[in-house]
Automatic annotation (TrEMBL):
Coiled coil (residue ranges): none
Example GO BP: ribosomal small subunit biogenesis
Protein name (database record): Ribosomal protein S4
Entry annotated with the keyword Metal-binding: no
Keyword Acetylation (UniProt): no
């Protein structure tokens, strides 16, 4: 089967790497907290950079704590409410490295169904956050062994990550208490380079025990709402995400 030149160009455009930070313009938010954005000099980034600088100047410190147990009291019209829900889904998706709509819906429906079936699980929001934060690629990023969630997925897909001495190539793998994460010796130099370039902030969460000498991560406890306030550069409305999938 011979493909035409136009079809080949379309295939290469689809497979081409598209950086996520270009999608931050519509959201007016530095979703992944990347300092690289402030160095852009093109005109299209000017308004966003000025908005972020004004927002940071109003805050007393460089980092702010967010309470994820509170609910927003917002009065929107139908059009603004739809836009707010859409931007909320996009922010959560981009923050976790570009999750698909299908995966977000699947995880949200699982959290809602678990709270209905099991009486022990009363907080669907915390269950949703735990299912996202205990992903293998997210935990590698939280431990500062990789620069971003996307680079963590690349390392996992190439087979350089082991969980309990077993090679794992699934980026959606959910870790449990007692799981031990290790790396292949082939990428130890890359991890050292990432650790040197990392600022160490936000601090690794308390439910992880990290050994930076042997490059190991151990999950020691469940996620609590009090240990999540430092992990997010902005307040994310997980309750709106759950309500959008409620039936």
């Amino acid at each position: 089967m011979i493909l035409s030149l136009n079809s080949l160009m379309l295939i290469t455009k689809k497979r081409r790497y598209k950086p996520l930070y270009k999608k931050f313009l519509n959201l007016k938010q530095n979703v992944q907290n990347r300092p690289r954005i402030f160095k852009f000099k093109k005109r299209k980034w000017k308004n966003l950079i000025e908005f972020l600088n004004r927002f940071q100047s109003k805050r007393p410190g460089k980092f702010k704590l967010y309470d994820f147990q509170r609910y927003p009291l917002l009065s929107f019209s139908f059009r603004n409410n739809f836009r707010y829900k859409l931007h909320t889904k996009q922010k959560i998706s981009y923050f976790y490295g570009g999750l698909s709509k299908k995966y977000l819906k699947k995880v949200s429906m699982l959290a809602l169904n678990r709270t209905k079936l099991k009486k022990k699980i009363t907080n669907s929001k915390l269950f949703l956050i735990e299912s996202l934060e205990k992903r293998l690629d997210v935990i590698l990023h939280r431990s500062h062994f990789v620069i971003s969630v996307r680079s963590a997925r690349q390392i996992i897909s190439h087979g350089h990550v082991f969980v309990n001495k077993r090679r794992v190539k699934n980026c959606n793998f959910i870790l449990k208490n007692g799981d031990l994460v290790e790396f292949s010796p082939m990428i130890h130099r890359l991890i050292e380079k990432n650790l040197k370039s990392s600022k160490g902030w936000p601090m690794p969460p308390k439910y992880l025990q990290i050994n930076y000498r042997t490059f190991q991560v151990l999950v020691i406890e469940d996620i609590k709402s009090t240990s999540l306030s430092l992990q997010f550069p902005f307040w994310m409305d997980f309750s709106t995400l759950l309500k959008s999938y409620e039936r």
